[in-house]
Amino acid sequence: MTAYKSDLFFGSLTGNGRILVVDDEPDIRRVVRILLEKAGYDVLEAEDGQAAIEVINTGENRLMVDAVLCDMRMPKINGVEAMAYFREHYPHVPVVVLTGFPDTEMAISSMRNGVVDYLVKPVDGEQLRSAVSRAMAQRELAWR
Questions:
Q1: pLDDT > 70: what percent of the chain?
Q2: By the 8 A CB rule, do 60 and 25 touch?
Q3: Are 24 and 48 in contact (CB under 8 A)?
Q4: pLDDT, tens digit, for every residue of 95-123?
Q5: Does a structural domain hold residue 92?
Q6: Structural domain boundaries enclosing 63
Q7: Cα gap 128→56, rounded to integer Å
Q8: Where are the beta strands (DSSP E) in 15-131?
Q9: How many domains does the chain have?
């Protein structure tokens, strides 16, 4: 197994960075993975907030996840709870919301709590890549 080296620490050796995609729909995760991998990102997946917390706390992932793309409505630990965990334990890791349930109040609340973007499914591939790119730029600024 090849060791992952984050662009943050090792320059542009690994592509554009590592994204954790959290969504309870396998087809959504697969499509997002394909779009992001084609854009040069390394992608980790989790089917809910609980699995996301386990993934981000595993091995080197806690240092090597550059951004999180998170659904809101999921079983076990939902997106709001998962994002609160990420904000508390990994405040330098930016979050983009990707949800199938548009909610203006939730979008405003999420943005006020530091979410980089609030996307509604189905999302255009360019819009998704643009949101992730902004998240990566925010992460880079956070480390300066």
A1: 84
A2: no
A3: yes
A4: 999 999 888 888 888 888 889 999 999 99
A5: yes
A6: 7-142
A7: 21
A8: 17-22, 41-46, 67-70, 95-99, 117-120
A9: 1
What would the mean pLDDT of 54-58 be, rounded to a whole number?
89
Tokens 């997946």, located at residue: 45
Average pLDDT value for residue range 25-47: 95
CATH number (domain holding residue 47):
3.40.50.2300
Predicted local distance difference test score (pLDDT) of residue 7: 42
- C-alpha span between 138 and 34 (Å, rounded): 23
Task: Give the pLDDT of residue 4.
Answer: 40
- Residues 97 and 67: their CA atoms lie apart, in Å, by 11
**Over the chain, what is the mean pLDDT?**
85
